[in-house]
Amino acid sequence: MSTETTTATAQTATQAMRRPLALSLLRLARPHQWSKGIFVLAGPVYGCADLIEQGARIRDLIVPSLIILASFSLAASGCYVVNDIFDAESDRRHPRKRNRPIASGAVTPGQARVFAALLLLGSLGLLALLPAPRLWWAGATVALYIANVMTYSAFFKKHAIADVMGLSLGFVLRVLGGCAALGIGPSSWLLNVTLFIAMFLAFGKRLGERRSMGELAAQTRSVQGLYTSTLLEMAVVVTGVCTLVTYTIYVEGQASYYTLGFNLLWLTVLPVTFVLLRCIVLLDAGRYDDPTEIALRDPVVRGGTLLFSGMTAFLMLWFRLDFGDTLAGWLR
Q1: What is d(CA 178, CA 194) in angstroms, rounded to the nearest whole number?
Q2: Is 172 helix (H, G, I), strand (E, B) or coil?
Q3: CA 172/CA 182 separation, integer angstroms
Q4: Which residues have CB under 8 Å from 221's CB, separation 6+?
Q5: What is the pTM of this model?
Q6: Mean pLDDT (10-residue bins), the chain, 332 residues
Q7: What share of the chain is helix, strand, coil (3-state, %, to 5)?
Q8: Among 95, 81, 102, residue whose Cα is nearest residue 19
Q9: CATH numeric code, 14-158
């Protein structure tokens, strides 16, 4: 470790000691990463119209969705803590990650292990609020998610492609968990889109790190040494294209959204395409090293995402349900 790095690490540790433990634990849980939990809502959102048509109340859809969302959020935080315990030494060599609570010394490894156990137990305990048949299926998806992330931290993260597949499986399990909480079956298109968009996010993060850190990226994430910039560029483009193709195939099959011979749901392909391509431009330019960070900080990407969400919600309500009856039901 260089003299400059040693000095910076010492300064970081001194600053960390001044922070309250509760604040450091909150940072360790990374609540900003809970935004990834939106994948839990994919199944409920696209299946809600059919469930309402079958007589389900809005409350019966919202409450289980929030429970499984909270469960996966706590599970993700617990897994982040475990991952940071594994990575504490390498994080100290990273210009940004050395500020993380464990790497900086704000939280001791012993405190982190207790905190991780509480988060993971709390995650599984929340599922007791679900009805018995759904409880077991939802619990299985959360348990598999935790096992997958632990396996990733211990093994997958050190092997090219396996690291991305391990991360992507976590997103697929989130979708399955959301479906299990409502007792609905996930469609193959939903799982395909989830898999490819998750791979796009993972490869995009590695490309962003390579662009922003150069060859130093391999010093903080060992698997970077197994990738090349060219391979990452191709992987980001391929998974992005697969995401768009899979989604457009789904749109093509939705006959209920046709009016005057035109499928209005196709219009949602436009903001999806724009957002994905803009993410590629920003990652390739090295302006961000994480697609999740882009979604939270780039106003154009946020706007495109909100436009897609709003268009999809409106079309689902307009075509699949009686719009007036739906609004009246929400107000009751």
Answers
A1: 13
A2: helix
A3: 16
A4: 90, 157, 206, 209
A5: 0.82
A6: 46 56 89 86 75 68 90 94 84 76 87 94 93 89 94 88 94 93 86 94 89 76 87 94 92 76 89 93 82 84 92 79 51 50
A7: 85, 0, 15
A8: 102
A9: 1.10.357.140
